[in-house]
Specification:
Order of helices and strands: EEEHEEHEHHHHEHEHEEHH
Low-confidence stretches: none
Bound molecules: adenosine-5'-triphosphate, magnesium ion
Number of strands: 10
Strand order of the largest sheet: 6-7-8-3-9-10
Number of domains: 1
CATH class: Alpha Beta
CATH architecture: 3-Layer(aba) Sandwich
Strand content: 25-35%
Largest sheet: 6 strands, mixed
Radius of gyration: 17 Å
Shape: globular
CATH topology: Rossmann fold
Distance between the termini: 34 Å
Length: 234
C-alpha cells in the first residue's frame, strides 16, 4: 500500500532522515519505534506532504506522492494525527470534527462519519458543543483521532497517540487503534511506548539517528535483546 524508498529529509544543513526504506501492506498495523530525535515525525510528515523529501520515493497504491500537496494526499486516503494533537481551540468538538471532513463533498458521507466517530468515541458526542481546548488530554487525543477518521482514510498515520496519557487511557487508545484497524483502516503508528506498540503491531521498524536499524514482526522485536535493552527498559 505504501512504499518508502531511500527517503532523505533535511532541515537546512541537518540531515534528519538518511535513506530510509520501509513498506506497509494493506490491512497491517506497522509501528516505527525509536528514541527522541530519531526522525520518526519527520518520516511521517514527509508521507503526509507536510515536509518535502530531499530525495527518495514515497509510493502510495502504486503512485508516487512525493510531489503532491497535503490536501491531495488526504483526498487520496491518508490522514495524519499529529504529535501533540493540534486540535483547533475556540472551535467546538463538533466543529473540529467537521474540519476533518473538509474534503468530503458528499453530505451523507459526512453524516456517516459523525455517526461512526460518535459510536467509537461516545465522550465526543457528550461534549460536542464544548470548546475543544477545554477537553482533557485523553479526550483531545480522541478528538484528534476522530477528526482524522472524518476524512475516511484508508491509511491513518498516528504520531505518539499515547503521549502524556495515564495508563488506563493508554490502554483505551491502543484498543481503539486495534478496532480502527479491524474495521479496515491500515495503520502506521509512531510510539515512544514501544512495548505497547509492538504488542499490537503486525510489524515494526526501529529508527535511530535517521536510519532504520532493525525490522521484524511485533513479536520478534519484543523478544529481541537489543530492542529490550534500548527501548523496553529491559
Ligand atoms: N523544523 C526543524 N528544524 C530543524 N531541525 C529539526 C526540525 N524538526 C526536527 N528537527 C530535527 O530533526 C531530527 C528528527 O526529529 P523528529 O521530530 O523527526 O524526531 P522524532 O523521532 O519524532 O522524535 P520524538 O520522539 O522526540 O518526537 C531531530 O534531531 C530534530 O532536532
Ligand atoms: Mg516525534
Amino acid at each position: 500500500m505504501l512504499k518508502v524508498s531511500d527517503l532523505v529529509v533535511n532541515y537546512g544543513v541537518i540531515n534528519a532522515v538518511k535513506k530510509v526504506n520501509f513498506e506497509i501492506n494493506q490491512g497491517e498495523i506497522v509501528t516505527l519505534i525509536g528514541a527522541n530525535g530519531a526522525g520518526k515525525t519527520t518520516i511521517l510528515k514527509s508521507i503526509s506532504g507536510l515536509l518535502k523529501a530531499k530525495s527518495g520515493q514515497i509510493e502510495y497504491e502504486g503512485k508516487s506522492i512525493n510531489r503532491q500537496k497535503a490536501p491531495k494526499i488526504v483526498a487520496a486516503g491518508i490522514s495524519q494525527v499529529p504529535e501533540g494533537r493540534h486540535i483547533f481551540p475556540g472551535l467546538s468538538v463538533k466543529e473540529n470534527l467537521q474540519m476533518g471532513a473538509f474534503l468530503v463533498k458528499d453530505s451523507s458521507k459526512i453524516r456517516q462519519g459523525f455517526q461512526e466517530v460518535y459510536d467509537r468515541f461516545p465522550v465526543l458526542k457528550e461534549r460536542e458543543n464544548q470548546d475543544a481546548a477545554t477537553l482533557s488530554g485523553g479526550e483531545q487525543q480522541m478528538l484528534a483521532m476522530g477528526r482524522a477518521l472524518m476524512a475516511r482514510p484508508k491509511l491513518i498515520l498516528l504520531d505518539e497517540p499515547s503521549m502524556g496519557l495515564a495508563p488506563i487511557f493508554i490502554n483505551e487508545i491502543f484498543d481503539i487503534i486495534k478496532e480502527i484497524n479491524s474495521n479496515g483502516t491500515t495503520v502506521l503508528l509512531i510510539e515512544q511506548n514501544a512495548k505497547k506498540a509492538l504488542s499490537i503491531a503486525d510489524r515494526g521498524y526501529v529508527v535511530a539517528s535517521g536510519e532504520i536499524k532493525m525490522t521484524g514482526t511485533g513479536g520478534e522485536l519484543l523478544q529481541n535483546e537489543d530492542v529490550q535493552k534500548a527501548y523496553l527498559g529491559g
